[in-house]
Write a structure and sequence with these properties.
With about 230 residues, the protein is α/β, with parallel strands linked by helices. The chain is built from nine helices and ten strands. Strands 3-2-4-1-5 form a five-stranded parallel beta sheet, with helices on both faces. It has a five-stranded mixed beta sheet with strand order 6-7-10-8-9. Strand 6, helix 6 and strand 7 form a beta-alpha-beta unit.
Length: about 230
């Protein structure tokens, strides 16, 4: 029986690649990459010659059965995404689930993922938090916002640059203008930026300075009133 390795890759800074990740990728029989062109640059930098196959959201349903067969046949396969940890808002869950169902060993290496540094950078409470990833595009978006408006834990969102202004405006609408927010941009890269403040203030900042790059937004949860903490008996 083979083994599936889930291997995180840098979200921007190549120095965040671990020695173990490099070794696993060199020793694997096959690397599954979200985009072989993007990952090819990483492989070249670290002199990794292992053969790559494309494995992304548009073909993963079709390839899982064949990959499980190869793993059952004794191959070692490493799964990577374009950046960060696979299966976190990226392909990986379907193959991992299939391996678990077929008794194939799965091991996820620790490593880079965007939401952890964004959460810690934010200065917002991180003892309890929820990861929302990307919000629904249209259907269910308003319903999700209405539900999250009552969430008391810190919330983490992935937002594309061209949707940041719309999303920040929705935060103001549903969570309130004073809700604390931190927008982390280009984490680990040369132009890393963390903009903190009330939702309305952060929106105003990016209206004046259009956002670029990869973005994570961390939003404070709804404050719990003293009455809620100490209800009358």
């Amino acid at each position: 029986m083979g083994k599936l390795y889930i291997v995180p890759t840098p979200i921007g800074n190549l120095e965040d690649m671990t020695f173990r990740a490099i070794r696993i990728l060199k020793e694997a029989d096959l690397i599954l990459a979200e985009d072989t062109r993007t990952s090819g640059k990483l492989m070249k930098h670290f002199e990794i010659a292992t053969h790559m196959h494309s494995h992304h959201m548009h073909n993963e349903h079709k390839t899982v059965e064949n990959l499980v067969s190869r793993l059952k046949g004794g191959e070692t396969i490493a799964l990577i995404s374009d950046a960060g940890t696979p299966a976190i808002s990226d392909p990986g869950f379907l193959l991992t689930r299939a391996c678990v169902e077929h008794g194939i060993e799965v091991e996820c290496l620790p490593g880079a993922t965007a939401f952890v540094p964004a959460l810690v950078n934010s200065g917002l409470p991180n003892d309890r938090f929820i990861f929302e990833g990307f919000l629904p595009e249209k259907k269910g978006r308003q319903t999700r916002f209405l539900a999250l408006a009552e969430e008391t834990r810190t919330m983490i969102f992935y937002v594309s640059p061209h949707k940041l202004l719309k999303t920040l405006a929705e935060f103001v609408q549903y969570f309130g203008a004073d809700r604390p927010i931190c927008v982390s941009r280009e984490l680990s890269k040369m132009h890393e930026e963390n903009i903190r403040g009330a939702a309305a203030e952060v929106l105003k900042h990016f209206e004046a300075k259009p956002p670029k790059g990869e973005i994570v937004v961390v939003v404070g949860g709804k404050a719990i009133s003293k009455e809620s903490k100490h209800p009358n008996s």
